[in-house]
Design a protein that fits this description.
Distance between the termini: 91 Å
Number of helices: 20
Strand content: 15-25%
CATH topology of the largest domain: Endonuclease, Chain A
Strand order of the largest sheet: 7-15-14-13-8-9-12-16
Helix content: 25-40%
Largest sheet: 8 strands, mixed
Shape: elongated
């Protein structure tokens, strides 16, 4: 929302404009803070905006897009930290590699901030800072009416004077939480020796308000000038105080030098039975009783108008505090006592040149309905010490510890027990800190595939809900839809010819076709692979394996052991591990012709021998060898003459072009 008029745009478009305004720069580090968080939406709709090309060339299918991003981030990694309120229910699990930090401060962790670090090839560095009202959720970025501001990109060694104190306070607060991520640490280090540029009277001031420190009211009072006593203070907020309305009103008027508070009354016209005020009636009545407060509606026709029932409802989630013509604060601060005194909040303060946005409304609403808020975890004991946990999908090890050493005082010899999603206690007791190996057949292992929280039973019987930072995500078992057949795995490797490690975005197009088809109702399943003779099949395998083998040899020579291990052991759609799994356990109707399976397994054993120094390669080699033995011992291969298999080995397991030198000796057989 501008100083004088309403501006309509999407936050993602505004973010892209800021990044594209720095040609030649790419995002290297990013820090996000939010109250509510939705991993799938963040990964499919927000994270792509950080890429040099944005979301161009990415699939519209959610899961395929995430696989594409996973592949891109292997080539050009971005260090990302996301901090969110641990009290809020978070749907789904992350799929991509970034750090998520569950925060549990004294008040709510409510501030919404984006801080990016960008670098060009010459080593030049710029930062982008944004703050406002939108959570990292679909509602926040796509559905609600929100207010957001991005400051002009700046050199972190010479940031604007109005920005430096706020950023320093933010990064210091996140670091003091005891769990700063790599992006936070890097950005804090880059600003450690910063010297503020000269102060300008017209520049926005970035504010961060921390629990038990400088409150929003104190900060605001220090930065606004008291003016004409007749000037009203306008507040737009979707949430309202439940008590202490007179005291809250007086405090805001005292901090801003105003004598009247004009408070926007949100009306939802889409409710059954007629329009409803999105506030509890008791809060409305108590606020109405405050002499210096009056309820208002928007003067802007677009914002005040009631939309038709066939149009998409928009929840106005923006938070604005302004004195027309003097200042405007845009951020995360609601009209609540917690927001102005207790929470972690953030936002920008601007000089204002506009007129009043609100006008009084005298008619009392007929219906009242409190606006819905993000769901919070139930039964969480706030008095319990803070715990942290991590689960590595590659090793299947779960680690649990107290957030701070002092938190464990009194629990040194206590026995803790893990609780799965069904409320069942584990048989083994733990002493913290602890590391536990979770087997693939345990309920907790299955829980972590879809739920990033675990329960922990304290020795005194109290239960804690603990956020689990998952690592080694490439090794988390994928949904069955993400397990393509043998031929599509081989086709993915054709993208390796492009000179980049890993599958490229277009390599997943065949998988996308299948996933999209399954989403459509009343349509037949896509037809299987077209019929192909042994030469067509082996041509596909031959080229694909050659490209993969060459790529893995380059990775090994470059010392990228982790990337090689990925192909030998990760259950991803484009790996050798998935290929062996598909040969051993094909989907219904996708069984592989025996000779083709025999040749493909031989290719796999050859590649495994190239990397026999890796445990993962040796393990996969044994699996392939075992299945080769099974194939040779059963029909039809146990009925084929050895001469044919030897010919097939020489024909299909050689360097490209060498097969021309293979002479097929077919013995004459008398016909009876």
């Amino acid at each position: 929302m501008s100083q004088s008029a309403t501006q309509w745009t999407m936050i993602k478009d505004a973010l892209r404009r800021e990044i594209e305004a720095l040609p030649g720069y790419r995002v290297t580090h990013a820090v996000f803070t939010t109250y509510a968080f939705e991993p799938e939406f963040f990964e499919t709709s927000i994270l792509p905006q950080l890429l040099p090309d944005g979301e161009r060339n990415l699939s519209l299918h959610s899961m395929v897009r995430r696989l594409q991003l996973e592949s891109i981030l292997r080539v050009s990694p971005i260090s990302i930290d996301v901090y969110f309120d641990a009290r809020v229910v978070m749907p789904g699990c992350p799929l991509l590699p970034y750090e998520m930090k569950a925060m549990r401060p004294q008040g709510e962790f409510h501030g919404k901030v984006i801080l990016l670090r960008l670098e060009d090839q010459a080593g030049g560095v710029r930062c982008i800072l944004g703050s406002g009202s939108a959570n990292l959720t679909q509602a926040g970025w796509w559905e609600n009416i929100e207010a957001w501001h991005f400051a002009n990109a700046f050199d972190p060694s010479r940031p604007p004077a109005g920005i430096l104190p706020g950023i320093t306070a933010l990064l210091g607060f996140l670091a003091e939480s005891g769990q700063p991520g790599e992006a936070t640490t890097t950005l804090r280090s880059s600003l450690a020796q910063a010297v503020a540029a000269g102060t300008r009277s017209d520049e926005p001031v970035f504010g961060v308000f921390l629990p038990a420190r400088t409150t929003f009211l104190e900060w605001l009072k220090d930065r606004v000038k008291t003016g004409d006593d007749a000037a009203p203070l306008e507040i737009i907020s979707p949430y309202f105080a439940e008590s202490g309305h007179a005291q809250l009103t007086d405090a805001l008027l005292d901090a801003t030098g105003c004598n009247r508070l004009d408070l926007w009354l949100p009306i939802d016209p889409w409710q059954a039975g007629g329009p409803a005020a999105l506030i509890e009636e008791s809060s409305y009545d108590k606020s109405t009783a405050v002499d210096s407060l009056r309820w208002c509606e928007m003067k802007d026709v677009k914002l005040a108008a009631s939309r038709g029932r066939d149009e998409t409802p928009r929840f106005l989630h923006a938070k604005i505090i302004r004195r027309p013509g003097e200042f405007c604060f845009m951020g995360s601060v609601n009209f609540t006592n917690r927001a102005v005194r207790d929470n972690f909040e953030a936002g920008f303060l601007f000089p204002d040149q506009g007129e009043a946005w609100l006008q009084p409304v005298a008619v009392k609403p007929v219906r009242f309905l409190k606006a819905s808020e993000p769901a919070c975890h139930e039964g969480v004991d706030e008095m319990l010490p803070e715990l942290r946990a991590g689960f590595d999908w590659k090793t299947s090890v779960l680690s649990v510890q107290f957030a701070r050493r002092t938190d464990g005082t009194g629990f040194e010899n206590g026995a803790f027990r893990l609780i799965d999603a069904e409320g069942r206690e584990s048989r083994n007791s733990l002493k913290l800190p602890a590391e536990v190996f979770i087997k693939a057949d345990e309920a907790l292992y299955r829980d972590l595939q879809t739920n990033p929280w675990i329960g922990l039973l304290f020795p005194d019987g109290r239960k804690a809900l603990v956020w689990v930072q998952q690592t080694g995500l490439e090794y988390r078992p994928p949904h069955d839809d993400l397990r393509p057949d043998v031929w599509r795995i081989l086709e993915m490797w054709r993208a390796l010819a492009g000179g980049k490690p890993g599958s490229q975005p277009d390599a997943f197009e065949h998988l996308e076709v299948i996933l999209r088809q399954r989403l459509k109702d009343h349509e037949a399943a896509p037809e299987g692979e077209p019929e192909r003779d042994i030469f067509e099949a082996m041509a596909t395998a031959h080229g694909s394996f050659y490209l993969l083998r060459r790529r893995l040899q380059e990775e090994r020579e470059g010392g990228n052991v982790q990337r090689c291990e990925y192909y030998f052991s990760a259950p991803r759609p484009d790996t050798l591990a998935s290929l062996v799994d598909r040969i051993e356990r094909p989907k219904e109707g996708e069984s592989l012709e025996a000779v083709a399976a025999w040749v493909i397994l031989h290719w796999i054993t050859q590649i495994c021998r190239d990397h026999e120094m890796l445990r993962a390669a040796r393990t996969l080699f044994r699996r392939a060898q075992k299945h080769l033995g099974t194939l040779l011992a059963t029909a039809p291969l146990n009925t084929i003459k050895p001469e044919f298999l030897e010919w097939a080995r020489e024909m299909f397991l050689c360097e490209p072009g060498s097969e021309r030198n293979v002479i097929c000796q077919i013995k004459e057989v008398e016909t009876q």
